[in-house]
Amino acid sequence: METNKLSIEEKILKEEKKNSTKISFLSFGLILLIILASIYSLFVGAAELNFSDLLRVIFEGQRGMIYNIIWNIRLPAILTALTAGMGLALAGVVMQSILKNPLASPFTLGISHAAAFGAAFAIVVIDLSEFPLLSFLDGFYLPSVSAFIFSQLAVIIVILISAKQQASRESIVLAGIALSSLFTAGTTALEFFADDLELASVIYWTFGDPGRT
């Protein structure tokens, strides 16, 4: 019996070591891919740059149009995209830990769709001229604030559902899918009643643009 127990423990340890090795290689590969993609993003855009342009800007401190493109447009966009990606990954990990559900994420639980609806609601429905108290929120900040409020509303709904003892992992995901469908339908309805400028703003906001940072 002891021999069998030791052999089982050895198999478990070997399997864990094998899995940790795979995770290490995968993490290294993903980090390398992110670095290569970030470097590639410095050269791709409306104005194509080459490696010599990048070297002149970094080491010679050459200022001008190329300097502004790299330091004021593309590099902030790359850093914003990396920060947003890390934020989404962290949000997924936190949700999976809190809800104890490996399927939990901002997308499967309808939170991202709620944020999109909030932004569309702010663009199409809210008129700041009718709300003087909100005048400090110009057209740039209002969609983001509204998206945050509606996303938090979706989070509260999901937490209330998961707080019930009868709620299973599957029911939480199904509730998230229902929320996604509800907010997606609301966004579609707002797009239907929006004018051309509002519709373009909603679509542009939904796609996202780190280049505006």
UniProtKB/TrEMBL annotation:
<keyword id="KW-1133">Transmembrane helix</keyword>
<feature type="transmembrane region" description="Helical">
    <location>
        <begin position="140"/>
        <end position="161"/>
    </location>
</feature>
<dbReference type="GO" id="GO:0033214">
    <property type="term" value="P:siderophore-iron import into cell"/>
</dbReference>
<keyword id="KW-0472">Membrane</keyword>
<keyword id="KW-1003">Cell membrane</keyword>
<dbReference type="InterPro" id="IPR000522">
    <property type="entry name" value="ABC_transptr_permease_BtuC"/>
</dbReference>
<protein>
    <submittedName>
        <fullName>FecCD transport family protein</fullName>
    </submittedName>
</protein>
<keyword id="KW-0813">Transport</keyword>
<dbReference type="GO" id="GO:0022857">
    <property type="term" value="F:transmembrane transporter activity"/>
</dbReference>
<feature type="transmembrane region" description="Helical">
    <location>
        <begin position="173"/>
        <end position="194"/>
    </location>
</feature>
<dbReference type="GO" id="GO:0005886">
    <property type="term" value="C:plasma membrane"/>
</dbReference>
<feature type="transmembrane region" description="Helical">
    <location>
        <begin position="23"/>
        <end position="43"/>
    </location>
</feature>
<keyword id="KW-0812">Transmembrane</keyword>
<dbReference type="InterPro" id="IPR037294">
    <property type="entry name" value="ABC_BtuC-like"/>
</dbReference>
<feature type="transmembrane region" description="Helical">
    <location>
        <begin position="73"/>
        <end position="95"/>
    </location>
</feature>
<dbReference type="Pfam" id="PF01032">
    <property type="entry name" value="FecCD"/>
</dbReference>
<comment type="similarity">
    <text>Belongs to the binding-protein-dependent transport system permease family. FecCD subfamily.</text>
</comment>
<feature type="transmembrane region" description="Helical">
    <location>
        <begin position="107"/>
        <end position="128"/>
    </location>
</feature>
